[in-house]
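Researcher: I'd like a candidate sequence for this fold, 308 residues long. If you have to choose between options at a position, lean toward the conservative one.
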């Protein structure tokens, strides 16, 4: 795993982002078993995920899995291999039930309740099944595609082209003043008083650092320096990878929130952030922080609690 520490001095993430945790073996060779995965399936367990990205999570035991044999003697149609741990293989299947069910949670609500194994399985399952839902036809010739390689690729029935799961890189940056203030902003669609750090998608031909500078300038109108990497987290809503950075800006520079995208932006003192962190989700001075399952929370907490 890539270190979360700044290259040089500075703060780090307070802990690994909750959706970055994983323990299973995901080696590519496992996906090309000559028997089509039948041997792995025989000792496998299945994670069911519904169309809304929810699975069953037990308050005591965590992620609920089902014996693969319950779905047949060979990998069920639509099954995707998530990985192997010890003698157990883990697979995901789309559940056809999309109504309200007790104990079924999505990643935002349930990701933080899972252990390292469960978090990695559920995050991968949501992203991989979601990709299959939207990759049924070839982007080149328009013919139907079929699942291959234990669900880690699709092959076109027309031109034989293979396509692999897509991940969209997005930067997320904690901008601070080098001392005791952090720049936070809110989108108009967020819950009342919710503020977070700034984020945006990487464009074609753009480096990650250039994206940080551009997105901060576009969203709040300030220039940043000392751009440094913190860590990353998969965010399959539907298929993002959040790449965390920190940067420094001048708090005296005027803030110009992007019209229609940023409802408000403001500099917040460390003491207020610390109070908001201790409030367990309640607002402090009009500030409510992002949920703990997000990398944004880990970045903010890491900055607020760091002692130089």
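Model: Candidate sequence:
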């Amino acid at each position: 795993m890539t270190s979360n520490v700044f290259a040089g001095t500075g703060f780090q993430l307070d802990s690994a982002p909750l959706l970055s945790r994983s323990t299973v073996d995901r080696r590519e060779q496992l996906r090309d078993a000559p028997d089509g995965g039948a041997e792995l399936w025989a000792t496998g367990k299945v994670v069911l995920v519904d169309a809304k990205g929810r699975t069953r999570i037990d308050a005591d035991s965590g992620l609920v899995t089902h014996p693969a044999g319950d779905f047949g003697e060979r990998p069920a149609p639509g099954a995707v291999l998530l990985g192997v741990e010890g003698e157990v293989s883990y697979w995901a299947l789309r559940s056809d039930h999309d109504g309200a069910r007790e104990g079924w949670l999505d990643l935002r609500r349930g990701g933080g309740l899972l252990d390292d194994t469960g978090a990695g399985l559920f995050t991968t399952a949501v992203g991989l099944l979601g990709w299959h839902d939207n990759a049924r036809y070839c982007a080149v010739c328009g013919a139907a595609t079929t699942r291959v390689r234990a669900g880690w690729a699709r092959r076109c029935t027309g031109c034989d082209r293979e396509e692999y799961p897509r991940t969209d890189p997005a930067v997320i940056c904690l901008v601070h003043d080098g001392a005791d203030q952090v720049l936070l902003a809110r989108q108009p669609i967020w819950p009342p008083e919710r503020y977070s750090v700034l984020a945006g998608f990487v464009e074609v031909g753009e480096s990650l650092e250039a994206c940080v500078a551009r997105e901060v300038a576009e969203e709040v109108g300030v220039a940043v320096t000392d751009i440094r990497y913190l860590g990353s987290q998969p965010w399959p809503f539907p298929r993002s990878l959040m790449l965390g950075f920190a940067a420094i800006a001048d708090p005296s520079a005027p803030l110009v929130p992007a019209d229609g995208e940023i409802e408000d932006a403001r500099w917040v003192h460390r003491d207020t952030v610390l109070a908001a962190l201790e409030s367990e989700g309640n607002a402090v001075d009009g500030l409510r922080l992002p949920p703990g399952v997000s990398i944004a929370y880990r970045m903010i907490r890491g900055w607020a609690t760091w002692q130089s």
